[in-house]
Amino acid sequence: MSIQSICCLGAGYVGGPTMAMIASKCPDIQVTVADMNEQRISAWNSETLPIYEPGLDAIVNSARDRNLHFTTDIRSAIANADLIFVSVGTPTKSFGIGAGRAADLRYIESAARLIAEVSVGHKIIVEKSTIPVKTATAIKSILTANSPHGATFQVLSNPEFLAEGTAVEDLECPDRILIGGETTPEGNAAVEALASVYARWIPRERILTTNLWSSELSKLVANAFLAQRISSINSISALCEATGADVDEVARAIGMDSRIGPKFLKASVGFGGSCFQKDLLNLVYLCESFNLPDVSEYWRQVVHLNNWQKSRFVEKIVRSLYNTVSNKRLAILGFAFKKDTNDTRESPAILVCRDLLHERAHLAIYDPRVSGESIRQDLLAAGVSEDLIASNVEICSDPYSAVAQAHALATLTEWDEFKSLDLPRIYDLMLKPAFVFDGRAILPIDALKLHGFKAFVIGKGL
Ligand code: UDX
Ligand code: UDX
After folding, report:
1. Any atom of ligand 1 within 6 Å of the Cβ of 275
2. For residue 294, what is the enclosing H or E element?
3. Which of 32, 161, 274, 278 is the best mutation target for the ligand 1 pocket, counting ligand atoms within 8 Å of the beta carbon and taking the most?
4. Is 173 tagged catalytic?
5. Is any ligand 2 atom within 6 A of the Cβ of residue 415?
6. What residues contact residue 309 under an 8 Å CB cut-off, 6+ apart?
7. pLDDT tens for residues 188-232?
């Protein structure tokens, strides 16, 4: 089966960029991204895309209105497609069985019901969202039980491994593409149909095919392993501060062992983003469900350590500022969960700011890409009252206005522009003693000390 028309349900951080790349690499395939959120779709159709990703504008502009379309007409998009990616959100359940750990699959289920209702003929359904193992079976049974026009379906798992901030590079040149399908002739044909789309620009040896469950599980495990490396190095950051070792030097020394490797060993105030914590919790829940409490507990500790690291950072700030930050102005540089994105989901900045606000600090927050409105929304959702936000949060348009008359500055995102801050100017603008809490280990500690700051850098101490 050769694919002529693709649609994707969900125009988010994953669906939007992934479809833009497919459309740009396959000009003969019509690609439609459908989402129920009208505002999001109009943003995709405008000059200001709803998400910030380096290089994305050019890819979208090259294909939009040629073979890349964004629409809220989900039904027609499904009806016209040979292959349907499902990339709707799968948040952690906040209620009922598995609350706080299991994935909430209501959007996946409603997508499957709609696909069943609208489809005619044969369709390939591709799970792009990260989901618990065995979801494909659930999707398949919903599809086959609700198909009034006698449509037939193959369900594939094709997890996305792109990281935000480098999505375009990751899509252009991925380490691997993983496709899981049923091990039947029909399943193999569907896998091959999808593989041949990717093979237009990705070498065949990087396209890995597995059974459905291996593919679904591999996504959770990949994210769990990456997150585990960060929690591991963060646990060592605390030990480094206590002993006088330098965490960057330790990371370099261990990373040169080719069995360990150098990536994902950067100590930080904690990992954020929409995936790591959610997928870890998913894995924890999965292990519990299969009666593997020790395995479950093992992975739970990765999340625990991450939360501990965030609290530890706040405690460090409060203790250093003579045990009180009440009514003190603190400059917060960076709110996104990592650089080069405007995404703040699960950003460590949210909890750090929440806890500092509950200590009655005044926060002057600057982020080059995150709007004041999303910062306020995130704090509100984290349980900070509207009154406290109104009285104690100031959104600044540059780092220098944030640090003016501040007792301390904290870096919470590793934006490149922070690495070249004018440190003497910052020192002059701040109250003395001027404290720096570098949550990303990006500022040169020697220069900070030279200019007179009292500096705490994660993994290096005060
Ligand atoms: C996706 C996956 O959904 C998630 O499971 C995976 O771990 C990461 O990638 P992401 O693209 O970042 O998440 O999510 P988000 O930006 O929230 O986009 C999901 C989109 O789906 C939203 O625009 C939402 O409006 C849309 N949606 C959701 C629908 O169109 N229909 C629905 O029923 C539900
Ligand atoms: C991650 C996975 O990398 C990607 O493969 C998957 O598809 C989605 O989840 P993402 O969350 O976009 O991608 O970004 P990533 O670069 O993995 O960073 C996640 C968090 O870990 C960020 O908060 C980042 O600052 C932090 N991090 C990363 C560290 O603290 N130290 C590191 O060494 C690396």
Report:
1. yes
2. helix 293-320
3. 274
4. no
5. no
6. 231, 234, 237, 238, 268, 269, 270, 348
7. 999 999 999 999 999 999 999 999 999 999 999 999 999 999 999
